[in-house]
Write a structure and sequence with these properties.
The complex is a heterodimer of chains A (238) and B (232). With 238 residues, chain A is an alpha/beta fold. Chain A has one domain (5-237): 3-Layer(aba) Sandwich (Rossmann fold). Chain A is 32% helix and 24% strand. Chain A has a 6-stranded mixed beta sheet with strand order 5-6-7-3-8-9, sandwiched between helices. In chain A, helix 6 (169-184) links the parallel strand 6 and strand 7. In chain A, helix 4 (110-123) crosses helix 5 (139-151) and helix 5 runs parallel beside helix 6. Chain A starts with a strand and ends with a helix. The relative contact order of chain A is 0.18. Chain B has 232 residues and is mainly alpha-helical. Chain B has a domain at 27-185: MetI-like (MetI-like fold). Helices cover 77% and strands 0% of the residues of chain B. Chain B is built from 11 helices and no strands. Chain B has helices spanning 3-15, 19-52, 58-70, 73-84, 99-123, 127-135, 140-150, 152-168, 171-177, 187-197, 200-226. The chains are: A alpha/beta (238), B mainly alpha (232). The A-B interface holds A 48, 51-53, 69, 75-77, 79, 81-83, 85, 87-89, 91-92, 101-102, 105, 133, 135, 139, 149-150, 153 and B 126, 128-129, 131-132, 134-138, 140, 142, 146, 149-150, 228-229, 232.
């Protein structure tokens, strides 16, 4: 299942400091968005607002699955929308306990749940660490566990805050596999990053927060010589 | 009587399983453990609300709770005495000079201590913990249990601090308990009375029980903390 969320007249200010004012934006279905902007422009704040973890100063975010609880109280999260912290928080327990967290009370057999966790951990290359306490993990491994924990819930929208910061190539590739899988299932992803990498290459749209507003544009892909030659050869063949 | 002789007499009382002495210990423990058990859940709930919600007048509430911590136990005892005495508004309940009255008094003493310390623990916990729990779709109950688990060491320390305060308080227990042997005489009221009588041995023996309790609780807390780890 995939959803679309819309927002109107979204603005955020901290006392006198206006972070941004966005007249309108929408995510989904099946969007891949690269959110960029300088430090302190409000990328994290925007993602937290979209995920329902923060309340905007003005404006409204509309999501089809918003519960009465969310409408009544702010900061109660948004169903099917997951926000992934730049530096993820893992609960005190084993890697397995962390990944199973979101599906622990779902109506599935324990065997199915275990299979899902192992699949998720295999995708991020950490199945051998399933029973290890999270304190033994490196920063990159923690990021991969957090991604597996989000992926297992198959969110409609995954908001990834600087997921590739201080990750090695292997870790980035593992995250790419999961992000691609979600996109193939019809989910949407939003990725913030200061550098272009394999994860941001998945994106087809770009949001740029600049001068307190959001500029939306299709993401231009760099055409390499090889792709140019291929397209030339195929057009000649035709 | 020398200090050394008093200590030896106190040890003899403890080892000989003196019935009167151990009855006092039993009253103390049953009253204080009941009080802390009854007040624990409301305190967690209250501190959770204070830590994670914003509402008008929250700071007034917090100031009030922090002030209540500093109220002398004898004042709480006096207020409760006036409420529960025959002429008071709750006189019909006939609770004065019973263990129930002592439990209520100790609950009133322990509640602000627990709320204040637990609120501090929850408020200084990592914001990402609750955000992660919320974003992963946890229910309200699950969020609360997750946060209790994640902050269990400071919460335990708060519980031990509150228990230590109520198990050692004299003022309220004397006022509403009446220090009746076998019914409402607990360790601190007995120590106060015995020392007034000049019978120091029993007072010292009871003091030793309190010291042993404090030591046991702190050993327990330290050993639990040892199993934790530093977050990076």
């Amino acid at each position: 299942m995939t959803i679309k969320i819309n927002a109107q007249q979204l603005s955020m200010r901290f006392k006198e400091r206006v972070l941004f004012h966005i007249p309108a934006l929408s995510i989904g279905p099946n969007d891949a968005i690269y959110l960029k902007g300088d430090n302190g422009v409000g990328k994290t704040t925007l993602l937290k607002i979209l995920s329902g973890l923060m309340k905007p100063t003005t404006g409204k975010v509309n999501a089809p699955n918003d519960s009465w609880l969310h409408r009544a109280f702010s900061r109660t999260g948004r169903k099917d929308v997951i926000y992934l912290h730049q530096s993820p928080y893992l609960f005190d327990g084993t890697v397995y306990q962390n990944v199973v967290y979101g599906i622990r009370y779902q109506k599935e057999s324990p065997k199915d749940k275990r299979a899902q966790v192992i699949t998720a951990l295999r995708m991020v290359g950490l199945e051998t660490l399933a029973d290890e306490h999270i304190s033994v993990l490196s920063g990159g491994e923690k990021q991969r566990v957090a991604m597996a924990r989000a992926w297992i819930l198959k969110p409609s929208i995954l908001l990834m805050d600087e997921p590739s910061a201080s990750l090695d190539q292997e870790s980035i590739q593992r995250l790419v596999v999961m992000a691609k899988d979600l996109l193939e299932r019809g989910s949407s992803i939003v990725i913030t990053s200061h550098q272009k990498n394999a994860l941001t290459d998945l994106c087809r749209k770009q949001w740029w927060i600049k001068d307190t507003t959001l500029i939306e544009s299709p993401l231009l892909q760099v055409i390499t010589d090889a792709t140019q030659e291929n397209s030339y050869a195929s057009s000649n063949a035709n | 009587m020398s200090l050394w002789q008093t200590t030896l007499d106190a040890l003899a009382l403890l080892v000989s399983l003196d019935r009167e002495l151990w009855e006092i210990v039993a009253v103390s423990f049953s009253v204080s453990l009941t009080a802390i058990s009854l007040v624990l859940l409301p305190s967690i709930l209250f501190s959770f609300i204070l830590a994670y919600t914003d509402f008008r007048g929250k700071w007034i509430f917090l100031s009030l709770v922090n002030t209540l911590q500093a109220i002398p136990t004898v004042v709480i005892g006096l207020l409760l005495y006036m409420l529960l005495s025959r002429a008071g508004p709750m006189g019909d309940w006939q609770m004065l000079f019973t263990q129930k009255a002592m439990i209520v008094g100790q609950m009133l003493i322990g509640f602000p201590v627990l709320v204040s310390m637990m609120h501090g623990a929850l408020q200084s916990s990592d914001r990402r913990a609750i955000e992660t729990s919320i974003t992963l779709g946890a229910s309200m109950t699950r969020i609360a249990t997750t946060m209790i688990w994640e902050t269990r060491f400071p919460l335990m320390a708060a519980t031990i601090a509150a228990f230590s305060r109520i198990v050692t308080e004299v003022g309220c227990s004397t006022m509403v308990g009446g220090n009746i042997m076998g019914i409402t005489r607990n360790i601190p009221t007995a120590i106060a009375m015995e020392s007034h009588k000049g019978a120091f041995a029993q007072g010292v023996a009871l003091g030793m029980v309190l010291l042993a309790l404090a030591l046991a609780l702190n050993f327990f807390l330290t050993s639990m903390r040892g199993k934790g780890y530093l977050r990076t």
